[in-house]
Amino acid sequence: MNLEQAEQIVMSLWSEDAGAWRRYWVPIFQRFAEDLIFDSGLSRGQLVLDIGTGTGVAAFEAARRVKSGGFVFGVDRSKSMLAARGAEPNARLRNVRFFLMDARKLLFPNQIFDVVVSNCGISPAGFRQTVAEVYRVLRKGGTFAYSDWRLKDVQAHRIFSETLQQYRTKNPSKKLSLDRAALATLERFSNREMNFDEQVRELNMVGFKRAEVKTRNYRISLEGIQEYLDMRLKRATLKQELSELPAKKRRELLHALRHELTHFVRGGRFLFDWKVIFVRATKT
After folding, report:
1. Which one-letter DSSP state was computed for residue 78?
2. Nearest Cα to Cα of residue 124 among 59, 213, 202
């Protein structure tokens, strides 16, 4: 499977995951977004672009920062993610709009934005094309700030995945086989060919200067191990994995996951650390 095929499959999974994403993951990514917007140095009146906006977490945060004199555009390739953003807490914000758009081919004129941000929203497969487009639409002196993370850097996620590998079906359907291959292809590419050092090199190659990289570690606190399992197992591929296991094997998997993840439970809470990388670069 080539990189383009893998990305197309993963994008379709993202669309299936929109509801679960909003329910379980958005509260965590809200914390990442707040720090990202702080790093970007946004101020009143600026024009901002949020790429890979998903449910709009960072875009709404940016809109509150630039206030009524500024404006924020959020773009994403997933119609389902954009539809799942919800309006209730942000209904009074009149300075943000969302568009279905590919960040690798931005439909904006040159040098229009003061700041471009992305809250874990850049596909590793499209990183080169995306940063070139970001550079094009940024004004001279503009800021590009984004965050990203790797599964291998989050111990709870890594243990979950290693345990799943031991129990998942050895005779997957064609769909599940393709899903697995796509996810594995993108993860390998991300870890080997588009790691954070390579990302900084790509930024320098298109013209960005003074790229600053920092790491933040977040302590995530969930109500219990079941909330963590729900967060993981409600995703499209994991639901497919469970559906293709016989009932007995499914029970064995869930038992094994609870056993392996028990040491993250303290005082009735499920606590784990999540490392996120933040990058900020300037167009000179």
Report:
1. -
2. 202
Q: Which residue type is seen at 215?
A: T
Structure token pair of residue 280: 């900020």
- DSSP 8-state assignment for residue 152: G
Q: Which of 142, 23, 120, 32 is nearest to 76 (CA)?
A: 120
Q: How far is CA 39 from CA 81, 126, 220, 225, in A?
A: 25, 23, 21, 32
CA distance 232 to 253: 13
Residues 6+ apart with CB under 8 A from 195: none
Residue 194 scores a pLDDT above 90: no
CATH of domain 3-283: 3.40.50.150
Tokens standing for residue 203: 């930024």
- Sorted by where each begins, the domain ranges of the chain are 3-283
**Ramachandran category for residue 56: left, alpha or beta (phi over 0 → left; psi -120 to 50 → alpha):** left
The size of the chain, in residues, is: 284
Q: How far apart are CA 136 and CA 130, in angstroms?
A: 10
Q: Are 130 and 51 in contact (CB under 8 A)?
A: yes
Q: pLDDT value at position 99? A: 95
- Reported as a single tens digit per residue, the pLDDT across 91-144 is 678 899 999 999 999 999 999 999 999 999 998 888 999 999 999 999 999 999
CA distance linking residue 14 with residue 45, whole number of Å: 33
pTM: 0.91
